[in-house]
Amino acid sequence: MGRYTGPVCKLCRREGEKLFLKGQKCYTEKCPVERRGYPPGQHGPAQARRRKQSDYALQLREKQKVKRMYGLQEEQFRNLFQRSVGQAGVTGENLLVGLEKRLDNVVFRLGLAASRAQARQLVRHRHVQVNGRAVDIPSYQVRAGDDIAVKAKSKELDVVESSLGSRTRPDVPEWLVLEEKTRVGRVLREPTRDDIPMAVQEQLIVELYSK
Question: What is the Cα–Cα distance from 39 to 20, expressed in whole angstroms?
Fold first, then answer.
């Protein structure tokens, strides 16, 4: 199944909360999830009236929410989860850290793109370099000490300029640093769960995949 290309606000409505899939625009636009607080489709209002969901439904919705936030397909998400299982530490936290360390997410967190989808496009079009070398793989896992830069010929791209100049641009997280003039960021350290500002119950995802 290919990547979803429909209205992203439908995905927010399906999960019942803002996923900020439009990035900085979500801070200024009134999201449909605020006007119609029920899932899309003709049965949406009926679903919203249901008082209780099964454990499986709660686990599935949490997984879908995180997967959609980061713009991954099911196979990509499951593969990352399997790698998280084999790592030392808490599986759920390993999963979220692995998602944060994706190159497209780092470009977004640095403020070089207004959304993860836009960051993914910058990476795929080879506008981004890691340690001086062009990388066009959005899932590339960055490491502490890596330099993330916009190519010299791409530094004045409108998408980069508008993102950096936006008043709604979120602060760069503590595990990253950005030199705006040169469009160069650096990974200071590995992110931790405390560095991930998302209301996510990752244990529900672990329980879902552990069935």
Answer: 17
Of 114, 105, 104, 122, give the one whose Cα is nearest residue 169. Answer: 114
In angstroms, the CA 50 to CA 210 distance is 27
Amino acid at 46: A
Tens-digit pLDDT profile for residues 15-62: 566 665 665 555 556 665 555 555 666 555 555 555 577 899 899 989
How confident is the model over 142-162, as pLDDT tens digits?
999 999 999 999 999 999 999
Beta carbons of 84 and 91 less than 8 angstroms apart: yes
**Tens-place pLDDT, residues 160-191:** 999 998 887 889 999 999 999 999 999 999 99
Token reading at 73: 């397909």
**In the structure encoding, which two tokens stand for residue 164, read together?**
């950096």
| 38-46 long-range contacts, CB within 8 A, separation 24+ | 38/13, 39/13, 39/14, 40/10, 40/13, 40/14, 44/13
> Cα dist. 142→55, 129, 161, 193, 201 in Å?
35, 11, 23, 16, 24
- For tokens 């969901």, the residue is 53
The Cα–Cα gap between 134 and 108 comes to 17
